[in-house]
Backbone:
């Protein structure tokens, strides 16, 4: 006969040891019972709302989850007190904040020089570290050089937030890196805004750049700003640069890698000449399809006769792309408008063909800034709203807004967070415990916002 008493005792000891190990674990570790949860079971309830900052203006633009489970937030700060440590000057610097899964601060670091340095985008890299892009007017401190008023500034960090290398790219005008990605082969690609008039047409490594110092007519030059893409190797060394646009204001806010190693640079265009061949009116969503070697393959405008501004893009599981932004149009590619401006979401194929488009929002001004593909095939979108929608009543001047759509654009989840003043959501990610993490900024200290530490605080929202 089997010794059932012995087996029972052995099982009890194992369970007891497991319980003791769990009870002694870090209270801020991810909850094991949620580790395998599906986002379809997500409750749509606020887990917590946190603000971080000092007495001045502090903002978060990007968030990722580190390999150790902590959350890494990147933005900019001009504070020298409160939650900001290691900063003694009132100029604006890059600001990295690491928290545990419960939102407790683990450490924070600032990067920059004696002038204004503003972070735009951070991603986790394949080596477990991070890379951040933005723009800098400094040429001292952490910034090794400056070519003009503002340069692209790219900073590679290790897992502890220490700088491993940094690079600046630019000319004499306003050059702003707004998004960076790591490519499948380990390179980095950054896109943003380029003041080509200040560079006298330099900055395009296609062999066709006009020599500097040559008198050029106004009709020969591109205009106020261009999409500017720079491909770098893993150490930040330039492989190629390209700019695209027309004679007015064109800005690239995001980029996605194509299946063939090229890129989809996306943003907004006000132009109707040079590389812009199908302007719909005022500003449009604008997509530039670039080959792996930097050559332009095609461009495409989406929009109507009013202002349509594109901000974010993600690839879909079926090989297409979804782009988000806002629209004020009621014609052209826009089939409906709910208020003064709506969040506008379009899906297009790799050749630029429009698959579907949808607007989301209420009677006032609403915008979508970032889109993230979720593991269950849905998409989370972060933005801001001045509207009341259904059971959600606008809390003040502007609220942070996050919503989820399925692959066909059907709205599945909607949430508004804010107080009496200005609150914005800038980015959203899915966490390892299958929650949503939203970051942005807040000037409120009431309603949903628990505390204000200065003029503007970093905002962290976790939704379970």
Residues:
């Amino acid at each position: 006969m089997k010794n059932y008493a012995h087996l029972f005792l052995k099982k009890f000891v194992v369970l007891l040891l497991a319980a003791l190990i769990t009870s002694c674990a870090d209270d801020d570790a991810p909850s094991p019972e949620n580790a395998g949860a599906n986002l379809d079971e997500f409750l749509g309830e606020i887990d917590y709302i946190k603000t971080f900052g000092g007495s001045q203006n502090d903002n978060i633009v990007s968030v990722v989850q580190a390999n150790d489970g902590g959350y890494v937030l990147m933005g900019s700060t001009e504070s020298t007190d409160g939650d900001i440590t290691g900063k003694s000057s009132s100029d604006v610097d890059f600001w990295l904040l690491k928290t545990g899964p419960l939102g407790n601060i683990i450490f924070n670091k600032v990067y920059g020089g004696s002038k204004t340095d503003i972070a735009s985008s951070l991603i986790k890299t394949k080596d477990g570290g991070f890379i951040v892009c933005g723009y800098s007017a400094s040429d001292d401190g952490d910034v090794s050089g400056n070519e003009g008023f503002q340069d692209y500034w790219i900073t590679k960090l290790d897992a502890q937030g220490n700088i491993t290398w940094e690079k600046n790219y630019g000319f004499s005008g306003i050059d702003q890196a707004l998004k960076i990605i790591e490519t499948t082969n380990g390179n980095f690609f950054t896109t943003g805004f380029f003041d080509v008039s200040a560079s006298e047409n330099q900055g395009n490594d296609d062999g066709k750049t006009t020599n500097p110092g040559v008198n050029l007519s106004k009709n020969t030059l591109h205009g106020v700003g261009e999409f500017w893409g720079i491909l770098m190797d893993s150490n930040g060394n330039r492989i190629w640069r390209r700019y695209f646009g027309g004679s007015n204001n064109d800005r690239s806010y995001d980029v996605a890698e194509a299946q063939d190693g090229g890129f989809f640079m996306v943003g907004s265009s006000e132009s109707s000449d040079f590389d812009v061949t199908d302007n719909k009116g005022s500003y449009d969503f604008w997509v530039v399809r670039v080959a792996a070697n930097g050559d332009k393959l095609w461009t495409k405008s989406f929009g109507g006769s009013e202002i349509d501004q594109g901000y974010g893009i993600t690839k879909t599981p079926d090989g297409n792309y979804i782009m988000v932004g806002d629209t004020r149009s009621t014609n052209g590619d826009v089939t409906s408008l709910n208020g003064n401006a709506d969040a506008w979401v379009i899906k297009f194929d790799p050749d630029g063909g429009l698959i579907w488009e949808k607007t989301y929002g209420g009677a006032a001004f609403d915008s979508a800034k970032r889109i993230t593909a979720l593991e269950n095939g849905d998409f989370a979108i972060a933005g801001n709203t001045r509207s009341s929608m259904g059971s959600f009543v606008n809390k003040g001047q502007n609220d942070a807004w996050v919503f989820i759509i399925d692959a066909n654009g059907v709205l599945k989840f909607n949430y508004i967070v804010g107080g009496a003043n200005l609150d914005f959501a800038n980015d959203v990610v899915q966490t390892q415990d299958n929650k949503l993490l939203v970051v942005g900024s807040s000037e409120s200290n009431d309603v949903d916002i628990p505390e204000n530490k200065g003029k503007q605080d970093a905002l962290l929202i976790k939704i379970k």
